[in-house]
């Protein structure tokens, strides 16, 4: 394999573009949403990203909504609900965490369900689902088949016993439904507030995707290629953890078998050092190596944004040391509870701690930190204020309040 050297600037701009944060390139191999006001924009952006992570924390807004909003200020929460609950073009399941994926991925995800049934992607969940008995599964499946879409509490509120009074125990019905959901027997039909409403898979996932057959070899090839397209260039461990859908052995075998389709590249890191050889798809090189047009507006990224999900990679490539401090005691936090990275062009220039206060009808700014060497010019402050005002409107409050 030949080896190319990619400058840090080129690689950062490529990653920002791949992540859907730059104006689309006509030669881009990934699906490009047509316009920012198109009714299918959210669906198409999720297809471009591969998935968006779902997280229950909503100090500002749910993670999946923030991820999409940072790419399109015209996006609204109802856009996603329509695709999830009406046209069924996207569905909820898991990758490395809870996620929303394109329904076109479903034929491949049937192989992922088999892995989950053996607790291969997340071995720790074997203990979590241990209280579920076959009789519990039969009970919830029968209830849903006869009554239609149900929430766990519609079946039973009996609590699971984890043998640890300090561990918050969900109901047996919730555990049973979630296990059937993660293994493909059930699907999320809709949401009632934050609660998932489950139904039989055949009543949610369109037949064309549900019945399409994909071999295991096709599944492995698909996962690796889809991951690499969205990573630009990566080592085997990064390919492994993009979807968390294969084993290390699967990745190693695929890389050897498909060496002719790959190129080795070296990437310059933010500190001037050079990466170990990384793999990239040969056909993707001309696009992601080409200098992209970075976004001109200032963007506030969700803590779970695809661009920064791999914290070690973010530090090496962008020189941005980021960690969520939700579970850090307040007095020990370096920054804050829900800190959003600030992206300008292809540079992460700072971070801001914000919180929506519905009762006060405000988006409160609790703290602001610019990276070393970043000057607080009037133009930058104006761009930040505009981004905050747009975020406030998106979350349904009227005013930005500075409490820092």
How would you state the average pLDDT, rounded? Answer: 92
Discrete helix count: 15
Query: What is the CATH top level name of one domain?
Result: Alpha Beta
Span from first to last CA? 52 Å
Rg: 22 Å
What do you see in this structure?
This protein is of the alpha+beta class and 404 residues long. It has a domain at 298-402: Aminopeptidase, CATH 3.40.630. The protein has helices at residues 8-18, 41-49, 63-69, 77-85, 106-117, 125-128, 134-147, 172-182, 207-210, 216-231, 236-243, 248-257, 285-289, 311-318, 378-395, and strands at 3-6, 52-53, 90-94, 98-102, 186-192, 195-200, 262-267, 278-281, 298-300, 339-344, 347-357, 362-370, 399-402. It has a five-stranded mixed sheet, covered by helices on one side. It has a three-stranded mixed sheet with strand order 1-7-8. It has a three-stranded antiparallel sheet with strand order 2-4-3. The longest helix has 18 residues, at 378-395. 38% of the residues are buried. The mean pLDDT is 92.
């Amino acid at each position: 394999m030949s080896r190319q050297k990619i400058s840090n600037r080129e690689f950062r701009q490529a990653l920002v573009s791949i992540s859907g944060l730059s104006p689309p390139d006509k030669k881009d191999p990934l699906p490009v949403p047509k316009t920012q006001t198109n009714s299918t924009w959210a669906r198409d952006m999720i297809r471009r990203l591969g998935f968006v992570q779902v997280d229950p924390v909503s100090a500002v807004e749910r993670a999946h909504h923030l991820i999409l909003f940072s790419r399109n200020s015209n996006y609204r929460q109802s856009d996603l609900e329509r695709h999830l609950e009406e046209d069924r073009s996207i569905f909820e399941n898991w990758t490395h965490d809870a996620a929303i994926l394109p329904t076109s991925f479903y034929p491949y995800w049937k192989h992922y369900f088999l892995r989950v049934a053996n607790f291969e992607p997340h071995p720790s969940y074997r203990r979590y689902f241990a209280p579920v008995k076959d009789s519990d599964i039969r009970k919830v499946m029968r209830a849903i088949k006869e009554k239609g879409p149900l929430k766990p509490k519609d079946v039973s509120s009996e609590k699971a016993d984890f043998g640890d009074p300090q561990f918050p125990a969900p109901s047996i019905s919730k555990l049973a439904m979630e296990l059937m959901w993660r293994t493909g027997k059930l699907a999320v039909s809709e949401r009632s507030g934050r609660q998932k409403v489950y139904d039989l898979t055949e009543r949610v996932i369109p037949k064309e995707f549900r019945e399409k057959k994909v071999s295991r070899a096709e599944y492995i090839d698909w996962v690796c290629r889809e991951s690499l397209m969205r990573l630009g260039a990566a080592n085997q461990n990064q390919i492994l953890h993009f979807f968390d859908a294969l084993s290390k052995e699967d990745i190693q075998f695929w890389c050897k078998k498909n060496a002719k389709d790959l190129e080795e590249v070296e990437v310059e890191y933010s500190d001037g050092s050079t990466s170990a050889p990384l793999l990239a798809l040969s056909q993707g090189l001309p696009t992601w190596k080409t200098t992209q047009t970075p976004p001109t507006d200032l963007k506030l990224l969700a803590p779970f944004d695809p661009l920064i999900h791999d914290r070690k990679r973010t530090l090496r490539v962008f020189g941005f040391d980021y960690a969520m401090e939700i579970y850090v005691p307040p007095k020990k936090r370096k920054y804050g509870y829900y800190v959003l990275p600030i992206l300008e062009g292809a540079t992460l220039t700072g971070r801001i701690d914000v919180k929506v206060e519905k009762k006060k009808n405000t988006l409160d700014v609790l703290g602001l930190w610019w990276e070393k060497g970043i000057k607080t010019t009037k133009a930058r402050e104006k761009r930040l204020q505009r981004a905050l005002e747009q975020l406030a409107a998106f979350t349904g409050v009227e005013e930005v309040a500075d409490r820092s």
